[in-house]
Structures are given as structure tokens and as C-alpha cells.
TrEMBL record:
GO terms for cellular component: cytosol. Pfam families: AAA_19. Keywords: ATP-binding, Coiled coil, Helicase, Hydrolase, Nucleotide-binding. Residues 18-45 form a coiled coil. GO terms for molecular function: 3'-5' DNA helicase activity; ATP binding; DNA binding; hydrolase activity. This is AAA family ATPase. Residues 182-596 form the UvrD-like helicase ATP-binding domain. InterPro entries: DNA_helicase_UvrD/REP, P-loop_NTPase, UvrD-like_ATP-bd. GO terms for biological process: recombinational repair.
Length: 750
């Protein structure tokens, strides 16, 4: 009785405190909304400068407002009781009252680290760690870890479902949520690892690799804002569906400054589809492709086999192979990329041809010609014959043109890739207008590096462009300076410290640079790159990413056992050695938070029976269901019959039907009459609680229930990999059903 009333009082105490935090949040929001409205009301005073200032203010207030809105749900999640007697609340952002007294610490701040790291063995000055479990704004439960033995036995330690298990058992929505309230110690160590260098995080399915990658990005931006504000952080994932699945996590952590990109979108202006030919994907991923592209570019700098006769305003000139070869040598010696070196090539030959024209005219006029040299140069330059001859010898090229011609013209491909077999060449050849694939992106990027700027070759004035850029930059800088000054004058709001102010500016700068400019700029050098599902990357994709971060500061997360791409890695060592040698560090995650033990064990048994070496993380919980295995005659009809039972078992949760690619249309057609708009793809969308996807599409995603069709086919067919079935089996958080028209693969039944 006494215990219950004490528990109630504790809970009430927390509710009161949390109410206070929300009041503060609401006040700040109202303040920001008002400031934003004020700025918007202000008439744009004439000058460009004033308008940019107003825009910069507006952007800053919008950002802050968006941040305050995004952290509303479960704003606070922890409390530390310290040896000093102080209490410290831990939440999504830092909050202080009007007098700058700290009300809540940002989870990324150093003082919050002990919330995740302290244990009974190493208390780190913490007596008690309290989890506050909120539903929206309400504190629904509190749960204490008592670390100080002296406190044990006190009756005020409270019961309740563990915060972690509550999170793990909650229904999936098709959108990943953050884990900020329940980050585990082994995860926290990786999230807070130092910025420089390459950290590889290897972990089996469901160990929180994606979660760790996202929280690390947020942590780095917070902790190293100064270093990362202008360079930015890039987060790369495998597919668009996956990027959509994770897109809300960073905003919910109050971060908008990370550029998120699917691996197929890293070439600005190029839309890609998936590479359907496994062989082509594997070939394009090989590191040797860099040499193929290099040769392809060099082969477009051609010396003609014989003399060329060129008509310039009625006078016939001769261009010799020797002349072209010499000009090519000198142009290449500049070390500039193809399009830029072309300027030198063209200049040399135009000068030589102008000399020749002058000589000829003098000859024909018996020495009496006194035509102006600059007119003659212009005649040479504008001669059609000259233009054709120079272009044939050294064509200005875009990466798109180079690569599309390379893969559509057998003679070009053979010349650039002399070591490839006929079968390999055939696998690469395709129509000139075929859509770009993900595997083309690193080749286009390689080509862009070697070709350089087309504008230069097209004669656009470099100096003028540089001037323009300088002016833009100066404008942006001046604007920011003014924003700073005026903010200081106006005292902003009570919560903003000088540090916050710097952060806000950083966000604005990031807006101007990293987010907007970086994602549209192929040559952008990021301060840090986080790569998820990194086992899928081909050597050429690694090469591209390494170029995007010259400092080689990377967080790489993945699971070698889940590799399904034909060009992906078989070992981290093999993947990274060519780029960073031995200079990378391996961290491992060992606990599976997603899949109940009965299902996780079945997946590991299957993988082992099929000869796949997997790291088998320990499942953190047991589920309510063992895998259900059906051997049936009529596959798709059996699925239709099983659907009601599966949907009921997960009680309104999200169900994925994972089937080999060839079956997907039939499965969708069979489900359509009954389930209509409820059936989607990827991780599902609004109103969609059923998705029909291939094993590859399921990568990185998770669902309450999963039904796998024809598992043996995921192991057997020509393009299948053991990893595919392993990935599919490790997607559910509650329940797995396997339906097969043949044998159920060895190991699953146990
Ligand atoms: N500390 C944690 N607290 C609460 N939930 C967690 C925690 N760690 C992981 N999870 C949850 O476990 C699930 C699996 O996490 P995540 O998707 O990051 O794993 P993964 O290692 O990337 O998996 P896979 O390689 O199979 O795609 C997610 O629902 C995630 O929110």
C-alpha cells in the first residue's frame, strides 16, 4: 500500500516536471513563431543585402521552429541522480529556463554520456538512472536502474515494463524511430567514438547498426559542429525505400544538417534504376573499371592515321598526324583533365594552322600579303573542316556521353577493356539510350574526374565564373555576420547562449553550403561519411565515396553475412585495404534487438546448414511464436488463406510478404481483391499494412510479421545468395511464416 502510494507520488512528481519542460518548449515555440512572423512582415528593403539578411533570419527561425516541433514526441526520457545529490534530466535537446538554469541536457552532451554508460560496476558518479516512458507528452511509467548498493532495498525503485522491451515490442509503422532513450552501452561507445579515422561496425541482423549509424551522425554534428558545419555529413544507404524508412530519425533528433543519399543518387542530375544484370553489376563494380574509363578517355584523344586536308576560306591546309601527336603530348603534359587540357591542344593546333595559312597566302601573293594575323586566326577557328578535325582528334565530352557510348559501341568498349572476354563485353553492352543504373554512377563519377569541366572547353570564361562565385560567398558571409550582430543586439531568446548562436549560424551555413550545395555538387568534400549496409558496396562505389571525403573520416556499418549484391564485399579487410590500408578499426555489436530468439535461431541454423558463416547475435527477447512452416501444393492460394491468421497474430501491425522477384506480380494480383490499397511496396506507406517485396528490397527494413514464399528458391536460383534468405528471415519483430511448394530448407525446422 505504502509502496503504491510512494510510486504514485514519484510518478506524479515526474509528470509535474515533464509538464514544466513542455511549457518551456511551448513558450519557446511561440517566441520563435512570433519572431518568424515579424521577420516575414518586415517589408523587403530594397537592397539585395537586406533581403538576404531577412531570408537568413527567417531560415534560422524556421529551422529552430522545425527543431522544436520535431522533438515534441517523447521530449525527455531519462533522469540521472548523481552522488552530488543533483538530478539531471536527459532529453532530445538541451533546455534552460529564462534565467539560463539548465532544465534538461541534450543526450549528446558529455554530461549525458553516463546515462548510457554507467553500470553497477562502474557507476561513474551515478546513483540511479531513471527511464521516463512517455506516450507523446504523458509520462506513463518510470523505471529505475539503481546503481548504488546503498539505495537498493529502498522501496522507491519502481516496477514497470522495461523501457527497452517496451520499445522493442511496440508495433512497427513502416518508419524507423529513434532509440535515443534506450541506447545500450555497446552502441553508445560507437556513437560517441572520435571523429577522425575509419570505424567499421560489424553486427548481425537487428543489432542496431542502422540506429547506431543515425545517432552517430546526429552526435557528430552536435559535438563537432565547428568542424562539420561547412563540410557537412553525408549518410549513404542502399535503396530509396531504405532512405524513406529512415528519413524521420534524424529530424526527431533535432538534426536536419545531414545529407542523406541512396548510393544510386550520388551523381547530381542522374536518375538511376537498379542494375538488373548481376554480371554487369559485378563487372562494373570491379576496381579495374577505373582503368577502363581512363583508357576510354585517352582513346578519345586520337591521332589521325594520315594527313588531313582542311579548307579555310578556299585555302587548303594540311594537318599531319605528327602535328596532332605533338599537340596531344603537350596538352597531356599539363596534367589537366581531358576537357581542360583540350584548350591547350586546340590552341597549339590553331596557332600552327594560322601560321600555315599565313605562309600560303604570302606564297600565293608573292610576299605581298599583309592580312591581319588575328583575322586569319579567326578564319582558321571558324572553318568547318578545322572544327571537325580538332573534334575528331579531341572531342569535348560529358561523362554521360563517354559512358553511354562506351557501353553501346563494341569497338570502343573492346579498345578500352582489352582484357575482358567476349562474354564479359556482351554483358556490358546495351543500347545507347538505356537508363542509367546504380552501378553506372561510380563510372560516371570516374569519368567526370578525368574529363573535368566542359564549360572550360566550351570557352566559358573561367575568370568570370570564379568572380561570380566569390561574390556569392562574400554576400553570404556578410549576411551571416550581420545576422550575428543583430541577434546579439536583440538578446534573442533566453535559451540561446553564444554557443547556441554559433550552432544556429552553423545550421544556416550548412543550409547555404552542405545541404543545398553539397548534394548538388559532385566534387563536394564532406567532413564525415556514414555508410549503412556497407557490405553491398562494390570497390568502384568505395572509390567514389573515398573521393567524397578526402579526410577519410568514415563510420561504416554492415554485416558481411548479409551481402547480396554481386559486387559487394566478402570481407571488410578486402573492401577497405585498397583505400585506407590497415588504418581502420573494427567494432562489433552483439545483441539482436529485433528478432525473437526462436526466429533468430532458425535463421542461423538455416545459414549454417547452407554453408554461410554468420555472426549470431544474442536475441534480447523470446517471442510469442515459433516459426510456422507450411509445405503446400498451391503456393499463392495458400498465402491468401494464411493472410487473416497472420494479420490477426500481429494485431494491426505491419506484414511483409517476401518472395522471389518472379512471383511478386502473381502475389500482388492474388492479394488485390481482398486487400486493395492496403498492399504496398518498400516499408509500406500511409494506410498500407501489407507489403509485397523481394528479399533484396527487404534489406535493412523490419516488420511485425513476415511471410516468406519459396525459401528454397532464394537459395537455389542462379542469381540467389544464401544471404537473401537470411536477410528475409531476420526481418520480423514478432512472427515468421514460411510457405514452400517444395522442401523447407535445411535447418529452419531445427
Ligand atoms: N538500444 C535500442 N533500443 C531500442 N530499440 C533498439 C535498440 N537498438 C536497436 N533497436 C531496434 O532494433 C531494431 C533493429 O535495429 P536496426 O535496424 O538498426 O538493426 P540493423 O543492425 O541495422 O539490422 P539489419 O542489419 O538486420 O538491417 C530497430 O527496430 C531498432 O529500433
Amino acid at each position: 500500500m505504502h509502496e503504491t502510494s510512494q510510486a504514485k507520488a514519484e510518478l506524479q512528481g515526474e509528470r509535474d516536471y515533464v509538464d514544466g519542460l513542455y511549457r518551456r518548449l511551448d513558450d519557446l515555440r511561440a517566441e520563435k513563431a512570433e519572431q518568424l512572423a515579424d521577420v516575414r512582415r518586415t517589408q523587403a528593403a530594397g537592397s539585395h543585402q537586406n533581403r538576404s539578411e531577412r531570408d537568413a533570419f527567417a531560415t534560422m527561425y524556421e529551422d529552430r521552429l522545425a527543431q522544436l516541433n520535431a522533438v515534441d514526441d517523447r521530449l525527455v526520457f531519462g533522469r540521472l541522480d548523481l552522488d552530488s545529490g543533483n538530478k539531471r534530466y536527459i532529453g532530445r535537446i538541451g533546455l534552460s529556463d529564462e534565467d539560463l538554469r539548465q532544465l534538461m541536457v541534450d543526450w549528446r552532451a558529455p554530461e549525458a554520456g553516463t546515462f548510457y554508460q554507467a553500470t553497477a560496476f562502474e557507476r561513474m558518479g551515478v546513483r540511479r538512472r531513471r527511464h521516463l516512458i512517455l506516450s507523446r507528452r504523458d509520462v506513463v511509467a518510470i523505471e529505475d536502474d539503481v546503481l548504488d548498493a546503498d539505495l537498493l532495498g529502498d522501496d522507491d525503485s519502481l516496477q514497470g515494463e522495461g523501457a527497452l522491451l517496451a520499445a522493442l515490442n511496440s508495433r512497427r509503422t513502416g518508419q524507423m524511430s529513434d532509440i535515443v532513450g534506450t541506447i545500450q552501452a555497446e552502441q553508445d561507445r560507437i556513437i560517441r567514438a572520435p571523429l577522425p579515422g575509419v570505424t567499421v561496425v560489424q553486427g548481425g541482423p537487428g543489432t542496431g547498426k542502422t540506429a547506431v549509424a543515425l545517432h552517430r551522425a546526429a552526435y557528430l554534428l552536435y559535438t563537432h559542429r565547428d568542424r562539420l558545419k561547412s563540410a557537412g555529413v553525408l549518410l549513404v544507404g542502399p535503396t530509396d525505400a531504405f532512405m524513406k524508412y529512415i528519413e524521420r530519425v534524424l529530424p526527431s533528433l533535432g538534426e536536419t544538417g545531414v545529407v542523406m543519399a541512396g548510393i544510386g543518387t550520388l551523381m547530381p542530375g542522374i536518375a538511376t534504376v537498379q542494375e538488373t544484370s548481376e554480371e554487369a553489376a559485378a563487372l562494373k563494380g570491379r576496381i579495374g573499371m577505373a582503368e577502363v574509363i581512363r583508357t576510354a578517355v585517352a582513346n578519345r584523344e586520337r591521332v589521325p592515321a594520315e594527313n588531313k586536308r582542311l579548307n579555310v576560306e578556299g585555302t587548303m591546309l594540311t594537318l599531319t598526324p605528327r602535328q596532332v601527336a605533338r599537340a596531344r603530348e603537350r596538352a597531356r603534359a599539363t596534367g589537366k583533365p581531358h576537357n581542360e587540357a583540350r584548350v591547350t591542344f586546340v590552341k597549339i593546333l590553331l596557332r600552327e594552322l594560322t601560321e600555315q595559312l599565313l605562309d600560303k597566302l604570302e606564297e600565293s601573293s608573292g610576299g605581298g600579303n599583309n592580312a591581319d594575323r588575328s583575322y586569319l586566326a579567326e578564319d582558321v577557328r571558324s572553318s568547318r573542316d578545322v572544327r571537325i578535325a580538332l573534334n575528331l582528334a579531341w572531342m569535348p565530352l560529358t561523362p554521360q556521353k563517354l559512358v553511354s557510348e562506351l557501353f553501346s559501341r563494341p569497338e570502343l568498349l573492346r579498345a578500352a577493356a582489352p582484357t575482358l572476354s567476349d562474354a564479359e563485353l556482351a554483358a556490358l553492352l546495351r543500347p545507347v539510350d538505356a537508363p542509367w543504373t546504380e552501378a553506372d554512377v561510380p563510372l560516371l563519377d570516374e569519368a567526370a574526374e578525368l574529363l573535368g569541366d566542359l564549360d572550360v572547353s566550351a570557352g566559358r570564361d573561367t575568370a568570370a565564373r570564379e568572380q561570380e562565385q566569390k561574390r556569392d560567398l562574400a554576400n553570404a558571409e556578410r549576411t551571416l555576420e550581420n545576422v550575428n550582430a543583430s541577434l546579439e543586439d536583440s538578446g534573442v531568446d533566453g535559451v540561446l547562449t553564444a554557443e547556441d548562436l554559433a550552432q544556429h549560424n552553423a545550421v544556416s551555413v550548412t543550409r547555404l553550403s552542405a545541404a543545398d550545395r553539397a548534394s548538388g555538387d559532385r566534387t563536394w568534400a564532406y567532413g564525415h561519411i556514414v555508410v549503412d549496409e556497407a557490405q553491398e558496396l562494390s570497390p568502384m562505389q568505395w572509390r567514389l565515396l573515398m573521393r567524397r571525403c578526402p579526410l577519410k573520416s568514415f563510420t561504416i556499418v554492415g554485416d558481411i553475412a548479409q551481402t547480396s549484391s554481386a559486387a559487394g564485399s566478402r570481407s571488410w579487410q578486402q573492401a577497405l585495404e585498397p583505400f585506407v590500408g590497415e588504418r581502420w578499426q573494427l567494432e562489433e555489436l552483439t545483441v539482436n534487438y529485433r528478432t525473437p530468439s526462436q526466429i533468430a535461431e532458425a535463421a542461423v541454423r538455416m545459414a549454417n546448414a547452407a554453408g554461410l558463416v554468420v555472426s549470431a547475435p544474442k536475441a534480447v527477447r523470446e517471442g510469442r511464436f515459433s516459426p510456422v512452416l507450411d509445405t503446400v501444393q498451391d503456393l499463392v492460394q495458400s498465402l491468401v488463406r494464411a493472410m487473416p491468421e497472420e494479420l490477426a497474430a500481429i494485431d494491426g501491425g505491419l506484414l511483409a510478404v517476401i518472395a522471389p522477384e518472379r512471383l511478386l506480380p502473381d502475389v500482388r494480383a492474388a492479394l488485390a481483391p481482398e486487400y486493395r490499397d492496403r498492399v504496398g511496396t518498400g516499408a509500406g506507406g500511409p494506410g498500407q499494412d501489407i507489403v509485397v517485396i523481394s528479399p533484396r528490397e527487404s534489406k535493412g527494413l523490419e516488420f511485425d510479421g513476415v511471410v516468406i514464399l519459396e525459401p528454397q528458391e532464394m537459395l537455389d536460383s542462379a542469381t540467389a545468395r544464401v544471404g537473401d534468405l537470411y536477410v528475409a528471415m531476420t526481418r520480423p519483430t514478432q512472427r515468421l511464416r514460411v510457405i514452400s511448394s517444395g522442401e523447407i530448407p535445411a535447418g529452419i525446422a531445427g
